[in-house]
Write a structure and sequence with these properties.
The protein is an alpha/beta fold. Helices cover 51% and strands 8% of the residues. It is built from twelve helices and five strands.
């Protein structure tokens, strides 16, 4: 369940009702809520108390408001505040792109866990004991022209292939397809040299991706970089 920590009684009531209903279900295992912070952090804490009272098992807190750009740092102080007042485990979300980020966020906020979205799209082995990418890689190595040793550590292309095949079988909105692939092949953060890994696409190929108008165009573009296996 995802909520935005709005302050209206209607939102709180609907969220609490949904949590209670899910927990009473015969299929119930755990129920969690993911929220963004409110400009008024007191309203965020009020929302947290409400879902706790409804029986939520844990809460994931994205350290940005709905209006905050992803390029702006996540508000770790806000996440720390929620953790200090919460009675259930708190998971931090926002700006998790490396194991070092995980350790820093846990250290600064005291949270019980972290969640990554864009970071895992870029590096599928982010949370693995032995990350899939341990050194910087060039574009050519990432698409299959590097050493065998490099390729043995890099499964990003296989993950991209799996995603594309899943979309073929179970289509999702095209805008979402392009967004996910753009992160998987090399985000702006990596393209500008701030990332620790190489990219699957060059800047030119990523720009061409953003110009695609259909999923077939996307497949043609990706096949032009390296043929995608169909399975």
């Amino acid at each position: 369940m995802i909520a935005s920590a709005k302050s209206t009684l209607q939102t709180l009531s609907l969220t609490s009702s949904s949590i209670s209903s899910d927990k009473e279900s015969e299929r119930y295992k755990t129920v969690s809520v993911k929220i963004r912070i409110h400009k008024d952090l007191r309203k965020t804490l009020d929302f947290v108390r409400q879902v706790e009272n409804a029986g939520v098992d844990f809460i994931t807190v994205h350290g940005r408001m709905r209006s905050t750009r992803s390029s702006e740092p996540a508000n770790l102080d806000a996440i720390k505040l929620v953790k200090e007042h919460a009675r259930v485990p708190i998971v931090a979300n926002g700006d998790v792109f490396s194991r070092a980020d995980v350790e820093r966020i846990v250290s600064e906020t005291g949270v019980d866990g972290v969640m990554s979205a864009r970071g895992l799209l870029e590096e599928p082995g982010l949370f693995a004991r032995s990350p899939t990418l341990t050194t910087s890689k060039t574009h050519s190595a990432a698409v299959g022209e590097g050493s065998d040793d490099d390729q043995s550590q890099d499964n990003r292309w296989e993950v991209l292939e799996t995603f594309l095949n899943n979309v073929i079988r179970a289509p999702i909105p095209f805008k979402l397809v392009v967004h996910h692939i753009s992160e998987m092949v090399g985000s702006d953060r990596v393209q500008t040299g701030r990332g620790l890994i190489g990219t699957l696409f060059t800047k030119e190929e990523r720009a061409a991706l953003m110009e695609c108008k259909s999923f077939l165009e996307v497949l043609d573009l990706v096949d032009g970089v390296k043929e995608v296996r169909r399975f």
